[in-house]
Amino acid sequence: METKKTLLSIRIIYWVTGISLWIAIMLSLLLIVSNTLLFSGIVKGNDIYSKNIHIKVSNTGHVHPDNLNLKLRWVNTTNYSNLINFNNFFAKKAAPFLLIYFLIFTYLLWIFNKFIHNVKEGNTFTVQNIFLLKRISYVLVGYWCVVFVSVQFANYYFTNHLETYKIFLSTEHLLWDALFIWIIAHIFISGLKLQQEKDLTI
User: Fold this and answer.
1) Any alpha helices (H) in 85-126, and if so which ranges?
2) Which residue, 53, 131, 178, 198, has most beta carbons within 10 Å?
3) Model pTM above 0.90
4) Residue 88 binned pLDDT confidence (cut-offs 50, 70, 90)
């Protein structure tokens, strides 16, 4: 029986995806441990505190009133500012969202790795691959929802506690990617039907 040799490009994609998956798994585990340690109370302190900061800003120049050459020096010494304890801030505000991002990304890599593995083994137009492609599209939509919620949360937090501009993050491409993969899944359905018809005629 003649065996079909897998394309080199498919094997390279499979290897790269496998390595990326293990790296994502290790980073996700590291983030889980980091979140656990940070939320356990090891990192303490206020998220935001206000403080008068003594800043020396000097500027010198010359003026010429009534043909006189005068040298002036201007000094500004104090400023009122909001400071952030970034360790505690990321622990309580940003780290959970970052962990969710990595977990979803790792899950997407795992699904895609299974899909590429099936293709590498010669099982392209199968029910399982159609199911995997649809799942990728659904997870991408969920990922978009998480990003949207996190951006809204960040804007609410910053505008209520810090004097800063709003965060604008374009994530519409995730929805387009999900739609594109969902269409590919339906193309695979047509391919599966053609393959089944071909198998029946043999």
Assistant:
1) 86-89, 95-120
2) 178
3) no
4) low
Q: How far apart are CA 81 and CA 95, in angstroms?
A: 25
70 or 137, greater pLDDT: 137
Residues contacting 52, CB < 8 A, separation 6+: 78, 79, 80
Helical pair 95-120 and 8-39, crossing angle rounded to 10 deg: 160
pLDDT in tens, 40-75: 766 554 444 444 444 455 555 554 555 555 555 555
What does the alpha-carbon distance between residue 51 and residue 93 come to, in Å, rounded to a whole number? 22
CB-CB contact of 181 with 133 (8 Å)? yes
CA distance 58 to 72: 10
Distances in Å between the alpha carbon of 170 and those of 144, 148, 173?
Answer: 10, 9, 8
Integer Cα distance of 149 and 101 in angstroms:
12
State pLDDT tens for residues 14-29.
999 999 999 999 999 9
